[in-house]
């Protein structure tokens, strides 16, 4: 057998799949590109689909907050994503194709939000430009990016059904992690995480704080955030919590950024 050509390194001869190798980098600090960044996810279903009456006050709040804090706005898709997924599933489209289609909707919302935030330096950022963020923030711009992770046709198959498991909530969390952000805030149309959907059961209780392990154990029928986020948060290095607030109530985003008690917090 011919001798392997090697280069000297700490991973010399490794297969990169050996079980013990996973712990080699434990404790090694990773570079936090924007450690004072607040990632604010604006839901399509929870906010943008309500139109000007809800969206304009939220844009005003975010714009004003951006003058004092470093923000990145991440957009969801909303009702149009649900429509295209319904059609795609009915036509038998694979999960990867569904992910491609859904991503185009959150991109449309990113364009809209960028224009609405132009007064405060709103700037459209594409997925491949994410590492330009430190420069954009240094220039006092307010970056806006769509939330669908760029798995596209390579989207992971879900445990059941066809709906892509990595959607815009998940995308916001993944971007917050790679940028080393200080916070990941999901702006929704309810006061936070409830034991049940409060619109279906008005007696549902608000969960103000819970660990990700506890929430996974509950195996709830419905949640206000994507289930995939829980398993990702559990393994995060930089982001150690997710906060969920009601964007229909003025001032909640600012309270979340300042670390005040508002909404729900899911911690590692």
Automatic annotation (TrEMBL):
InterPro entries: AceGlu_kinase-like_sf, Asp/Glu/Uridylate_kinase, MoSto_subunit_alpha/beta. Residues 37-246 form the Aspartate/glutamate/uridylate kinase domain. GO terms for molecular function: ATP binding; molybdenum ion binding; UMP kinase activity. The keyword Membrane does not apply. Pathway: Pyrimidine metabolism; CTP biosynthesis via de novo pathway; UDP from UMP (UMPK route): step 1/1. It comes from the Bacteria. One of its GO terms (biological process) is UDP biosynthetic process. The keyword Cell inner membrane does not apply. Keywords: ATP-binding, Kinase, Nucleotide-binding, Pyrimidine biosynthesis, Transferase. Its EC number is 2.7.4.22. GO terms for cellular component: cytoplasm. It is an enzyme of class 2 (transferase). Gene3D superfamilies: Acetylglutamate kinase-like. Pfam families: AA_kinase (PF00696). Belongs to the UMP kinase family. This is UMP kinase. It comes from Citrifermentans bemidjiense (strain ATCC BAA-1014 / DSM 16622 / JCM 12645 / Bem) (Geobacter bemidjiensis). The lineage of its organism: Bacteria, Pseudomonadati, Thermodesulfobacteriota, Desulfuromonadia, Geobacterales.
